[in-house]
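Q: Please design a sequence for this.
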């Protein structure tokens, strides 16, 4: 577990261009626009002797994010390996015995293969997208995924709001590589300092966006991302305008 820094709810003043209205907002997909179906997973992962509730599972997921941050910020550069560590640490934090985690992983992948488990669009998301769209702001999704983001966005009703959808599997480059953000910026026709990004994993989303010169906020819906001090927001609707927070 990472060292816990003193609790600090960072409501910040962006480093640059805070006085300017951004021309484009870019969003991560899983954990930002569409959340894991924790209710389904809690049902699937509970055993008679070991019930798990959805909120416990969601809180435990932070330890998965911490594992990715430890790997990528500790000199590791294998994003795929970091996703394995994500799952293993998440399950351990949820109370799953180490000997059973592999089987849980297979179960998770089987469910995810049937239909994406990142499928819950939370209240306020559609309204925020409508508001941003009506303000003339261009919108994009930048996701590490398996090629399904465009169809998922369509199925969830998010697709009409987005000018650009960049799926790492489709373009062949994944966050935190800045090139995936550059692809989005090029397609949007905006410069890095005209855009802002929000995502839920610091080392993948925020550091990736920064590497592309884009100001970024970290999604921290339960105020538990305490090992990172950075601009945090509870919900994607808070990305703009950051400077009124
Ligand atoms: Mg995410």
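A: Design:
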């Amino acid at each position: 577990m990472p060292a816990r820094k003193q609790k600090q709810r960072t409501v910040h003043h962006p480093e640059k261009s805070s006085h300017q209205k951004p021309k484009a907002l870019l969003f991560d997909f899983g954990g930002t626009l569409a959340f894991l179906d924790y209710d389904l997973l809690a049902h699937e992962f509970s055993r008679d002797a070991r019930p798990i509730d959805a909120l416990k599972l969601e809180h435990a997921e932070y330890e998965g994010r911490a594992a990715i941050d430890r790997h990528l910020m500790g000199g590791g550069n294998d994003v795929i390996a970091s996703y394995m560590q994500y799952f293993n640490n998440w399950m351990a934090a949820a109370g799953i015995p180490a000997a059973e985690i592999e089987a849980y992983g297979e179960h998770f992948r089987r469910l995810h293969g049937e239909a994406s488990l990142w499928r819950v669009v939370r209240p306020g998301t559609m309204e925020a997208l409508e508001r941003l769209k009506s303000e003339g702001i261009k919108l994009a999704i930048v996701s590490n995924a398996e090629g399904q983001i465009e169809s998922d966005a369509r199925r969830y009703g998010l697709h009409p709001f987005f000018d650009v959808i960049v799926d790492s599997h489709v373009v062949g480059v994944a966050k935190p590589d800045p090139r995936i953000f550059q692809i989005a910026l090029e397609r949007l026709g905006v410069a890095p300092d005209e855009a802002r990004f929000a995502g839920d994993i610091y080392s993948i989303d925020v550091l990736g966006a920064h590497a592309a010169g884009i100001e970024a906020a970290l999604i921290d819906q339960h105020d538990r991302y305490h090992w990172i001090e950075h601009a945090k927001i509870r919900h994607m609707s808070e990305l703009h305008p950051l400077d009124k927070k």
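Q: Thanks. Anything notable?
A: The pocket of magnesium ion is lined by residues 28, 30-32, 199-201 (CB under 6 Å). The two ends are 30 Å apart (CA to CA).
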